[in-house]
Write a structure and sequence with these properties.
The chain is of the alpha+beta class and about 200 residues long. It is built from 6 helices and 8 strands. About 40% of the residues lie in helices and about 30% in strands.
C-alpha cells in the first residue's frame, strides 16, 4: 500500500511543490542580501538626489529614532539631516504635506542653505513619494523653481506658499492639479514653519 502511494500522481505533485518552495526560499534569501538597502545608503541616495552629490550627512537633533520630529496643521517632518560641504551648512528635510487630492499627501525633500548661522534659502525641492495623487507628471521644474526663488528677506517675512494669491502668501499652483499643489505647498510650508517658529 505504501509503495503504491509513493508512485501516485499526488505524491509527485507534493515533491515538485516542495522542491519549488525550497528553491524560491533560497532565491529570496539571496535577493534579500543583494538588494538590501541600509538606512545610510537611503540617506546617501536622498542627499545625492536633492544636493547633486554624495556627502557625509547626519541626523538632525530632534529627528532621531524615538524622537518626535515636527508636526503642524500643514504637515509633518519625520526625517531631517544636516551636513557641511565646502564650508557651507545645509539641512535636508523629508516633509509630508497634507490636504492633497482625495485628502492624500505628498512627501518632498527640502534642502535649506544656511548663511551666518541662519536659513538663507531653499536650495532645492524634490518629490520623494505621494499617496492618492494622480497628476504628478503635471509638475515640472518651473513649479519647483518657485520655491527656490524666494530671497532671504522673503523667507524671513513669514510668507507661506498657497494655491491662491494674497498679500501674505506666494501663489504656487498647477492648473488642473490644485489639490496636489496644495499638498506640496503644505510640505514646504511645514519646513518654513519649523525653521522660523511661526504658528500655523
Amino acid at each position: 500500500m505504501k509503495t503504491k502511494f509513493f508512485k501516485t500522481e499526488g505524491f509527485r505533485c507534493v515533491i515538485v511543490l516542495f522542491v519549488i518552495t525550497v528553491v524560491m526560499c533560497g532565491l529570496l534569501a539571496i535577493l534579500n542580501d543583494v538588494l538590501f538597502v541600509s538606512d545610510a545608503e537611503r540617506l546617501n541616495r536622498a542627499v545625492a538626489k536633492v544636493y547633486g552629490k554624495e556627502v557625509q550627512a547626519e541626523t538632525l537633533q530632534g529627528f532621531g529614532e524615538g524622537e518626535t520630529g515636527f508636526s503642524c496643521e500643514a504637515g509633518t517632518i519625520e526625517k531631517a539631516y544636516c551636513f557641511t560641504d565646502d564650508g557651507v551648512y545645509y539641512e535636508l528635510f523629508g516633509s509630508t504635506g497634507k490636504n492633497g487630492y482625495k485628502d492624500g499627501t505628498v512627501t518632498l525633500w527640502v534642502l535649506v542653505k544656511y548663511e551666518n548661522d541662519k536659513p538663507a534659502s531653499l536650495e532645492n525641492v524634490a518629490v520623494d513619494s505621494y499617496e492618492k495623487q494622480t497628476l504628478m507628471s503635471s509638475f515640472n521644474s518651473s513649479f519647483f523653481n518657485k520655491y527656490t526663488s524666494l530671497t532671504t528677506e522673503e523667507l524671513e517675512s513669514g510668507k507661506l506658499f498657497s494655491t491662491a494669491a494674497s498679500d501674505t502668501s506666494v501663489q504656487n499652483v498647477v492648473s488642473g492639479a490644485t489639490m496636489s499643489s496644495n499638498a506640496m505647498n503644505n510640505a514646504v510650508n511645514t519646513v518654513l514653519l519649523y525653521l522660523w517658529g511661526e504658528a500655523v
